[in-house]
Amino acid sequence: MASGPTLIASVQRALHLLDAVASGERPATAKELARAVGLPLPTTYHLLRTLVHEGYLRKLEDGYTLGERLTALTQRGSMLTVLSRVRPIMRAVRDELRGACYLSLYSHGEIKLVDIVDSPEAPRVDLWVGVHEAAHATAFGKCILSGLDAEARRDYLSRHRLTDLTPYTITDVRVLEQRLAPGRDVFDDREEYLLGTACVASPIRAPGLIGAIAVSIPARRYASVAADPTPLHRAARRIARAFAIGS
């Protein structure tokens, strides 16, 4: 006869407490939580103290609420759910354009590279300089900068120096601003980040979202990909819908 799985009772009790806090419409006291989960009050206090210390709960004057760490986990879980829908779209772009595919988003004042889909036949670019230091030299960085309002873009550029990465990198703010003309639906990087590599990107537009999808290719293939960015535009629309559904 097969035995059941080995369960850790203290972990179960802590999870039951989290469930009880999350299900309430107001902060719950230790006594209320002890009654709700059927635990002795001293045990409840020990578990609550641990959960508060680890950031999963917050202790207020009138009881306990969910903590910032649990809220952050929920947000990351929501992002992972969206990415599970977005990755097939990125794989299709990679296979159609024969280049590594990149998804980037603007979040809390920074441009973040969220995901990369590559393959042995379509390897990713060696990101030798962090994205936050090189938005001006990447197609997806320009894409997102173009989508910011004037104040947000000035703030970003004031905090990030236009570093000279290759002989083709734009290091003059006035020239960069000209390249960020509003209304464009395709942006590029022609050996501005890395010699021998080009990148083409399309903006992702959705309520409350500023992002970009891009593909990197050998510089010699730039003209053929840039001539018909339809696959990128199509993918950008599909990704925007995926984020709208997941929000």
Automatic annotation (TrEMBL):
<dbReference type="GO" id="GO:0006071">
    <property type="term" value="P:glycerol metabolic process"/>
</dbReference>
<dbReference type="InterPro" id="IPR014757">
    <property type="entry name" value="Tscrpt_reg_IclR_C"/>
</dbReference>
<keyword id="KW-0805">Transcription regulation</keyword>
<keyword id="KW-0238">DNA-binding</keyword>
<dbReference type="InterPro" id="IPR050707">
    <property type="entry name" value="HTH_MetabolicPath_Reg"/>
</dbReference>
<dbReference type="Pfam" id="PF01614">
    <property type="entry name" value="IclR_C"/>
</dbReference>
<protein>
    <recommendedName>
        <fullName>Glycerol operon regulatory protein</fullName>
    </recommendedName>
</protein>
<dbReference type="InterPro" id="IPR029016">
    <property type="entry name" value="GAF-like_dom_sf"/>
</dbReference>
<dbReference type="GO" id="GO:0003700">
    <property type="term" value="F:DNA-binding transcription factor activity"/>
</dbReference>
<dbReference type="GO" id="GO:0045892">
    <property type="term" value="P:negative regulation of DNA-templated transcription"/>
</dbReference>
<dbReference type="GO" id="GO:0003677">
    <property type="term" value="F:DNA binding"/>
</dbReference>
<dbReference type="InterPro" id="IPR036388">
    <property type="entry name" value="WH-like_DNA-bd_sf"/>
</dbReference>
<dbReference type="InterPro" id="IPR005471">
    <property type="entry name" value="Tscrpt_reg_IclR_N"/>
</dbReference>
<dbReference type="Pfam" id="PF09339">
    <property type="entry name" value="HTH_IclR"/>
</dbReference>
<feature type="domain" description="IclR-ED">
    <location>
        <begin position="58"/>
        <end position="245"/>
    </location>
</feature>
<comment type="function">
    <text>May be an activator protein for the gylABX operon.</text>
</comment>
<dbReference type="InterPro" id="IPR036390">
    <property type="entry name" value="WH_DNA-bd_sf"/>
</dbReference>
<feature type="domain" description="HTH iclR-type">
    <location>
        <begin position="8"/>
        <end position="68"/>
    </location>
</feature>
<keyword id="KW-0804">Transcription</keyword>
<keyword id="KW-0319">Glycerol metabolism</keyword>
